[in-house]
Amino acid sequence: MTRDPEALTKETFDLVVIGGGINGATTAREAALRGWKVALVEARDFASGTSSRSSKLIHGGLRYLAQGDFRLVHEARRERRLLMKLAPHLARPLPFLLPIYSEDPFSPFKIRLGLALYDFLGNLGPQDRHRIFAPREALQRIPTLRSEGLQAGALYYDSETDDARLTIENVIDAVESGARAVNYAEIKSFDFRSNGRPSVKSAEVEDRLTGKRWEVAGRYWVNATGPWVDRVRALAPSYDGSQTIRMTKGVHVILPAISDTYAVFAAVVPGDRIVVGMPWNGCTLFGTTDTDYTEDPGAVKPGEEDVRYLLNAINRILRVPVRPGEVIGSFAGIRALAAEPGRSPSANTREYRFHRDPWASNMITVCGGKLTTSRALGEKLADVIAAESGSALASRGPDRPTRARPLPGGLGGPFDKYVRASVNDAVREFRVAPEAASRIIGTYGSRWRRVLEPIGQSDSLRQPLAGGTGILAAEVEFSRHDEMAMTAEDFLLRRSGLSWKSEAHPELASATAAIFASGARES
User: What is the pLDDT of residues 179-227, one digit of tens each?
Assistant: First the structure.
């Protein structure tokens, strides 16, 4: 996957997708697999906004049951099953343990009832069903929990993911299916035509790396820019100032490991919110906050009050509290929720909605959505466009192809068994450490050989970079040549699998930046 902005000027596309987050990526992939001519443009790097700042979960949303949002839960549980089949390296089963304390707003009976419904709405079979533990059993599984007031522990299953890599692999598959994708390409203006119904004819795109500008033309347009959707809408002269989304801020903190095996829930008391900590890169990723945000979405960052809120929540259920000085790192993201005035941020729907403006009849704006349901969003969006186009697009290719096609790193069969066998192959063929082999295979799935094969031409690519993470130079080079990483941050935060934990390793950042600088001098 190479970057070629000028390729955007060489044809009129059936569909131009603006925004390279998860919703734009899944839409572009769905459309490209249907045989459409697709362009995907992203003003920053793919997944650089909300799609790399989530809780890293593929989940049905247990708390949505209390809000009566059964349709969303059912769709999300179905999508979890599908993703575990088509991308097992990006949807690993994760047990959740919910400790129930006497001061919690929910009783063991209520939790048992909710989890029974959760199972009914879509699990993976008997091994995926919930269980209720006595306090002693719950403490055996997570000894770091506080024992005082513990009434029971509820076990159920969802899945963990690498949100940025999930996005990147959707982009990769879209490109391998014929789409043109360009990061660091910002829409600056639209050219409208009016032949009965005002519509977008083309857009001026600026290459943010060179300053050059090009024109991209399309028959249909999707605005999937997340927190920036209303800013894109505002590029139209007829924009009426309306707002289609509500931005809320979500902060996560990275803590010392609470459990190596289980994710853990904590109720926020008083209140009706819950927060979750999950094992992640040898640490615990804990979050999230949910507060309204009205400032620049590109400048969002954690605040001291956000971190204090999260520490108070986790310390209520721990035997030994986490001190502020033990926080390893933190990050913040913006949810672009479909606007529902009058509701609290946590009560605002997480369902996606498609918005149409009268001044751009061939453009659909995506509002809301979840990482888990992004594939379904792309499929439904393509269905809407196909129906409007008549036979022009509907008969081009297979119907709803992403239900059956694995993502680039996906494969059939039990993934843990595949990892064990592949680690042995990687150690034997490429002489890399078993720990590095296991991490690379877990990150790239069945594409791992493509990462390591260049070692045969350059032994230096086998060497781990400074910082103690085990990241190999081969991985950095692979991201540059095959995954359109343009900066060290692109690799560290969105392609390495380390994500925000990489910020705790300044030596790794320096070594990675040196590789990118060397590559820039050679090109």
Answer: 999 999 999 999 998 877 899 999 999 999 999 999 999 999 999 999 9
Q: Which two tokens stand for residue 257?
A: 């490991």
Q: Compute CA 307 distance to the chain's CA centroid, rounded to the nearest angstrom.
A: 22
Q: How far apart are the first and last CA of the chain?
A: 16
Task: Kindly tell me the burial class for residue 69, based on how many C-beta atoms sit within 10 Å of its own C-beta (0-12, 13-18, 19 or more).
Answer: middle
354 phi and psi angles, rounded to 5 deg: -110, 125
Angle at 223 between CA 219 and CA 224, to 5 degrees: 130
pLDDT, average across residues 327-345? 91
Residue 235: other Cβ atoms inside 10 A? 16
Read off the pLDDT of residues 269-314 as tens digits, 9 standing for 90 and up: 887 788 999 999 999 999 999 999 999 999 999 999 999 999 999 9
Homologous superfamily (CATH) of 415-522 is Alpha-glycerophosphate oxidase, cap domain (1.10.8.870)
| Every domain of the chain and the residues it spans | 5-50+164-244+350-403, 92-162+246-338, 415-522
Is the CATH number 3.30.460.80 carried by domain 92-162+246-338? no
pTM of the model: 0.95
SS (HEC) of 252-303:
EEEEECCCCCCEEEEECCCCCCEEEEEEECCEEEEECCCEECCCCHHHCCCC
CATH number of 5-50+164-244+350-403: 3.50.50.60
